[in-house]
Structure formats: C-alpha cells, structure tokens
Write a structure and sequence with these properties.
Protein name: Imidazole glycerol phosphate synthase subunit HisH
CATH topology: Rossmann fold
Number of helices: 6
Number of strands: 12
Largest sheet: 7 strands, mixed
Order of helices and strands: EHEHEHHEHEEEEEEEEH
Subcellular location: Cytoplasm
CATH class: Alpha Beta
Strand content: 25-35%
Number of domains: 1
Helix content: 10-25%
CATH architecture: 3-Layer(aba) Sandwich
Shape: globular
Subunit structure: Heterodimer of HisH and HisF.
Keywords: Amino-acid biosynthesis, Cytoplasm, Glutamine amidotransferase, Histidine biosynthesis, Hydrolase, Lyase
Structural class: alpha/beta
Strand order of the largest sheet: 2-1-3-4-12-11-10
Pathway: Amino-acid biosynthesis; L-histidine biosynthesis; L-histidine from 5-phospho-alpha-D-ribose 1-diphosphate: step 5/9
Length: about 220
C-alpha cells in the first residue's frame, strides 16, 4: 500500500493555483486539482487557496459546495489547510468592499477580516512571523520570512483559550504591518496561513512539508 499522502487543491476559480500544486508535489504529496466532492472528501488533506476579493472567493466556494465539504472534513478530523483568502474565509466575515452583496465567511473561527492600518497597503513582500511554542507548521522555520500579498487581515484573536471549552488551545502565529495581525492558525485539523507558502521559497516548502507529514499520522 502506498504511503504517499493525497492532497486535493480545491478548484473553485480563485486564480492561478498551479504553483500550489507544484509545491505540494515537491514535498511528497500526490496532488489533484479538482472541485469534485468525492475526491475532496476522500483525500488525506484538503488545500483551500484564495486570491482576490473575500466576497468573490466565498461565492466561488459556495458554488462548489466548499463550505459543506470543509465542514464534513473537519467533523471527521480530516485536515484542511487554507491559504491567504482561503484563511480569511474561515472567519465570520470581512469588511472588504464588494461590488455585489456581502457574503459571510465560513465561521469556523470568530473574528472579522479588516483593512490593515498601515501607511502602505497592500502588504506585499517578505516578513518574519512570531510562531508560538509547540508549533507543527513552523517547526524548523520559526525564524524565517514568508511572502505576503494582502490588504486585509484578522487583527484580533478571540477564540477562548485552553481551559474554557477548548481541549487544546489553538496555536496562533502573528506578523506585523501597521500593527499585529494573524499570520497563521493551527487548530486541530484546521490550519491556515495568511501568507503564500507556495511562493515563500525553501521556508514555504518546509512548512508545506511539515503539514503533508501530518497527513499520514
């Protein structure tokens, strides 16, 4: 039996995702780019990309039944990794303007995506992050820089810590651009990064490899 983990990159029209497919293949995953429900549910890992406007991305996700696919996977403790707007989608909503009706987020985590209070936006380029102790995603790359392209982010983390209702406290990684914002979250089977690991060179590949390795445990 093959021990190569399978990863579905969810294809919902979020933009060019070929770099994500290639990066995941480089770190040892068997990757399929598809919106197919059966494949997305059966894969060892689900990678949720995201480029552009929050509300447009959420409409795309809903068009392929993405919210239900993600819910079903998480209910079964099946790993999901969201990237950039794919991370923002996991929160309650966004203040980002939209030409159409506002679309709520997936509400996996409390919080609203807000405009970064920096003199220069978008935040575009390489930034260091502050990873928490015990991180799995950043193991071995805690002090490296990662590539960001965004004007909006989550500036507060309000999910109750360990000792309230959470059996294990989520691990939250922070970065700064005009003030602190959430750069990554590790919360049981659901992980996400605001930056693009597939565009972050060797450090990004190492992070993706860390995630892929968890899929065969």
């Amino acid at each position: 039996m093959s021990t190569t983990p399978t990863v579905v990159v969810l294809d919902y029209g979020s933009g060019n995702v070929r770099s994500a497919v290639r990066a995941l293949e480089r770190v040892g995953a068997d990757v399929v780019l598809t919106a197919g429900e059966r494949q997305a549910l059966a894969a060892d890992g689900l990678f949720v990309p995201g480029v552009g406007n929050f509300h447009a991305c959420l409409r795309g996700l809903r068009a392929v039944d993405g919210p239900r696919i993600i819910d079903v996977r998480l209910a079964g403790s099946r790993p999901v990794l969201g990237i950039c707007v794919g991370m923002q989608a996991m929160f309650e909503g966004s203040a980002e303007p939209t030409a159409g009706a506002r679309v709520p987020g997936l509400d996996q985590w409390p919080g609203t995506v807000e405009h970064l209070p920096a003199d220069v936006v978008p935040h575009m380029g390489w930034s260091t992050v502050q990873a928490p102790p015990g991180t799995t995603l950043f193991a071995g790359v805690e002090d490296e820089r990662f590539y960001f392209v965004h004007s909006y982010g989550v500036r507060e983390w309000t999910l109750e810590p360990e000792g309230s209702f959470a059996a294990v406290a989520p691990k939250v990684t922070w970065a700064d651009h005009g003030g602190p914002f959430v750069a990554a979250v590790e919360n049981g089977p659901l992980s996400a990064t605001q930056f693009h690991p597939e565009k972050s060179g060797d450090a990004g590949l190492h992070l993706l490899e860390n995630w892929v390795r968890t899929l065969t445990r």
